[in-house]
Amino acid sequence: MRLPLVIAVVLLTPIALHASAAPPGQNDAGTGADAGNTFADATPLPTRSAVGTLAPQAGDPHDWYKLHLDAGEAAYFFAYYLCGIAVPAPAPVALVAPDGTILQATPAPCFSTSASATSRPNLILPAAPVAGEYRIHFSGDAGVGGDYTVCRTPCAWPDALDRIDLMPPYPSATFRTLVIPPAHGDLGNPEGPTADDYVRTTLDALAEWDRVLDEYAARHPQHAYLAALRIEAEVYDGTQTLDGRSWDVEVHFLETHYGARGAAGCGRALGLAPVLPQLRHVTIAPLANCSIFITLVNSASSAGELIPDFVTLAALRNSVLHEFGHIFGLVHTWTYVDGRPDLMVSPAPFYWGDGSIVGDGGAMAPRLCVSSLDLEAIAYLYRWIPTGVVQPPAKGSHEAELPYELYC
Ligand SMILES: [Ca+2]
Ligand SMILES: [Ca+2]
Ligand SMILES: [Zn+2]
Questions:
Q1: Cα 309 to middle of ligand 3, angstroms
Q2: Rounded CA separation 307/315 (Å)
Q3: Which residues surround ligand 1, an ion (CB under 5 A)?
Q4: Beta bridge partners of residue 43, listed in sequence order
């Protein structure tokens, strides 16, 4: 038991050197101050996500966090820098045992909008060797720092529980939606889904939105107008007009890696250049008002795999539900309830075959359901329906007013 004390003393020394130079204005993990610069002086890791700053050039060479683990307890962490000019190269982050031993050190990649960057924890402790205070250490020894996020999974964004970000509503209550089947199905996996499977699952997901909106409207009379929202879906059979103005929404399938499991947007500002050649009709007609792209090759591979998974129908269904949430005007939320992400959490985490977020390599997509939070926010966006006068949202996000419920 002496060893930890010795290490603590040795590491404690720099605090005196840097204490006077501690950068002002930091708010690491919401503490209003800089996270501890030493092993001994570690800041408690919040139960929710922490955001912080490491600034080795400005008197902040280390940020240490600590949490207690029982012997044998599993703990998985996300520890990522936020992409930006302040992070020229991956900076190291480490998981440290109570006795100071480094259990795992990794260059923390930069968090981006790419699902693949954040779909899995990067510090992994399947079983804590002893009970005690473990540490997460962001080190500026390489001279590199920046803004980072750190959390123990399942992570939730700080102070964002039951809040969802908003875009303007679509100016029609009817969404004429054309589903354009993929050119082929199994993508080389003879056991995999067929093109018909993909289309059928997509139509099921669209029908689920309709059913859920009706159910919510019936249960909440003040939002009864949501029953007027209607997805009218058709499957492209070669005869429909593809002039880009006949459809409110087109659903496309992409058969190569696109960097996300899906994408959606209205107004053609989707950064489409990489995928245009794959769209079956884009050379003969402009896109519809809104488009959804579903990647049939997952961008987030399973643990240990070098080749991304083929999408499962369960994952496809979740993606279609999520992307149509964007069409309605929802952005994202960081709401987790009982360890499960809301439908509009992004990037949606994978769960593995043993039910953990990392593990045996068997990726599973937990069934996601539209939530009361999602529906409340849609009710807010479409409050124009009774008057017919479309209004932009007067706020950038919606806070839940009703108890959180899933509409499965
Ligand atoms: Ca700091
Ligand atoms: Ca610090
Ligand atoms: Zn999204």
A1: 19
A2: 17
A3: 26, 28, 34-35, 60, 63
A4: 65
Q: CA angle 159-265-407, nearest 5°?
A: 55
Residue 238 CA to residue 223 CA, distance in Å, equals 38
Gap from CA of 62 to ligand 2 centroid (Å):
5
Closest ligand to Cα 260: 3
The per-residue pLDDT for range 76-101, each reduced to its tens digit, is 888 887 655 444 566 789 999 999 99
Residues around the ion ligand 2 (C-beta < 5 A): 34-35, 37, 60, 63
Nearest to 251, CA basis, from 280, 228, 226, 222: 280
The Å distance, Cα 86 to ligand 3 centre, comes to 26
Distance 97 CA to ligand 3 centre (A): 36
Residues in the chain: 408
Rounded to whole angstroms, the Cα distance separating 400 from 381 reads 14
Q: Which ligand is nearest to the CA of 324?
A: 3
pTM > 0.90? no
Distance CA 57, CA 139 (A): 12
Angle between helices 372-381 and 195-219 (to 10 degrees): 70
> From the CA of 137, which ligand is nearest?
2
pLDDT tens for 16-42 read: 333 445 567 899 998 999 999 999 999
- Return the structure tokens found at 167: 């875009």
Q: Tell me, in angstroms, the distance from the centre of ligand 2 to residue 26's CA.
A: 9
Structural contact between residues 63 and 14, judged by C-beta atoms closer than 8 angstroms: no
Which domains are assigned to the chain?
Answer: 2-152 (2.60.120.380), 163-407 (3.40.390.10)
Tell how far the Cα of 63 is from the centroid of ligand 1, in angstroms. Answer: 5
Ligand (nearest to CA of 147): 1
Q: How far is CA 244 from CA 65, 77, 170, 230, in A?
A: 52, 44, 16, 20
Ligand 2 centroid distance, CA of 347 (Å): 28
